[in-house]
Design goal:
Helix content: 40-55%
Keywords: Glycolysis, Lyase, Schiff base
GO molecular function, one term: fructose-bisphosphate aldolase activity
Strand order of the largest sheet: 3-4-5-8-9-10-11-12
InterPro entries: Aldolase_I_AS, Aldolase_TIM, FBA_I
Protein name: Fructose-bisphosphate aldolase
Structural class: alpha/beta
Oligomer: single chain
EC number: 4.1.2.13
């Protein structure tokens, strides 16, 4: 019978034969004929000869495994992190390279300053359109002068730096001055408050998803963050959202995580501490268990891509949603239950290298956000746990102000509220101070 032949590239034949020799088996004289009908780069290889080479390599590999099994932690036994039924993982030889560049020390210092004990973040980064809606609620027109007056009211509060470590600004405010001519950024610095800046360009529909959104703004981000740094900003915010009623789809989760990771890497490269914020919306009638499951999935994806983009964890801050039932769920959870589920999720997903976790209020009422955060601070945590609130700190102040200059004196009352931190005596105008005092864990009277 004529033996079966295979036409293979000559380089493949040489590789196979040399591999068998390299494994330690002796050379053998095998006839390899190269018929003139084949090109010079091809060799007619007998079926038996190819089979013999494969066997030789297999035998040599088996001998290698046997000789080294007793000394290797990866052969003949499971590695310490191998799951039952899974394939063994090879030991990692790749060293992660963190590229925060020349700003590394400054980023760590900034993050620690914002995550300092007893303080949190005041978020006033609403776009002009959103700020206009808030002004309209008290009968004011959406003009630059009115926006300036409102933001000045907040940022010049006496004693604000005692409880506020950072303030997220909209671009207009970063370049704005008070009516006295002092830069808003300088008002913050005088009270040891770190200025921050919103850098995303908003949400748009995500094609191919289940009516979900993605956050735009990566184009030109490097030049913008460099400019914001020169204007005095030292941290940045990028908000994307995940909707539980819409799935969330794998596409939406990956897009949110990847966008946050790219933004974080670019921000660190230009000296800004990135706040990582994948907000899980409260919309829906889902249970708190469902929220926990989705939150764990989202944060796992986020930290995977943060690592892939060489983001320095010591130079970031997180702004997560609290783990709560959906807003339309029939049963409301207590602050203690929300604290339990939220901290469980964070301990499963967030490395202790992260300096601070600054919760968003996410549509909760002022008291809900305050009491939930208070419950989380009743025991030690691996990270500084505080707030990054907007509406939960602003709403009552806005109503008390009403756009009238004579009502500016109301801000003088807030310092007294901070020391009292007594929710049972809380009046509408006191929420700004009460919220800060309780949220950071001050004892209730």
């Amino acid at each position: 019978m004529t033996p079966t032949t295979f036409v293979v590239p000559h380089t493949t034949l040489v590789f196979l034969y040399n591999a068998s020799v390299a494994c330690g088996l002796p050379k053998k004289n095998n006839s390899i004929n190269t018929p003139s009908s084949h090109s010079p780069l091809e060799t007619s290889l007998s079926h038996h000869f190819l089979y013999e080479i494969v066997i030789r390599i297999s035998m040599a590999s088996a001998s290698f495994v046997k000789l080294n099994a007793s000394s290797s932690p990866w052969i003949g036994q499971r590695s310490f992190n191998q799951r039952p039924g899974s394939s063994p993982r090879l030991p990692a030889t790749r060293v992660s390279v963190i590229r925060a560049g020349s700003y590394s020390e400054e980023l760590v210092k900034t993050a620690k300053t914002i995550a300092s004990p007893g303080r949190g973040i005041l978020a006033i980064d609403e776009s002009n359109a959103t700020c206009g809606k808030r002004l309209a609620s008290i009968g004011l027109d959406n003009t630059e002068a009115n926006r300036q007056a409102y933001r000045q009211l907040l940022l010049t509060t006496p004693g604000l730096g005692q409880y506020i470590s950072g303030s997220i600004l909209f671009e207009e405010t970063l370049y704005q001055s008070t009516t006295d001519g002092k830069k808003m950024v300088d008002c913050l610095r005088e009270q040891n408050i770190v200025p921050g800046i919103k850098v995303d360009k908003g949400l748009v529909p995500l094609p191919g998803s289940n009516n979900e959104s993605w956050c735009q703004g990566l184009d030109g981000l490097a030049s913008r963050t460099a400019e914001y740094y020169s204007q005095g900003a030292r941290f940045a915010k990028w908000r994307t959202v995940v909707s539980i009623p819409c799935g969330p789809s794998a596409l939406a989760v990956k897009e949110a995580a990847w966008g946050l990771a790219r933004y974080a890497a670019i921000s660190q490269d230009n000296g800004l501490v990135p706040i990582v914020e994948p907000e899980i919306l409260l919309d829906g009638d889902h249970s708190i268990e469902t929220t926990l499951e989705v939150a764990e999935r989202v944060w796992a994806e986020v930290f995977y891509y943060l690592a892939e983009n060489n983001v320095m964890f010591e130079g970031i801050l997180l702004k997560p949603s609290m783990v709560t039932p959906g807003a339309d769920h029939k049963e409301k959870a207590s602050p203690e239950t929300i604290a339990k589920y939220t901290l469980t999720m964070l301990k499963r997903r967030v490395p202790p290298a992260v300096p601070g976790i600054m919760f968003l209020s996410g549509g909760q009422s002022e008291m809900e956000a305050t009491l939930n955060l208070h419950a989380m601070n009743q025991s030690p945590n691996p990270w500084h746990v505080s707030f990054s609130y907007a509406r939960a700190l602003q709403n009552s102040v806005l109503k008390a102000w009403q756009g009238l200059p004579e009502n500016v004196k109301v801000k003088m009352l807030r310092k007294e509220c901070l020391s009292r931190a007594t929710p049972t005596k809380m009046e509408q105008n006191d929420v700004f101070g009460i919220g800060i005092g309780i949220g950071i864990g001050l004892p209730l009277k």
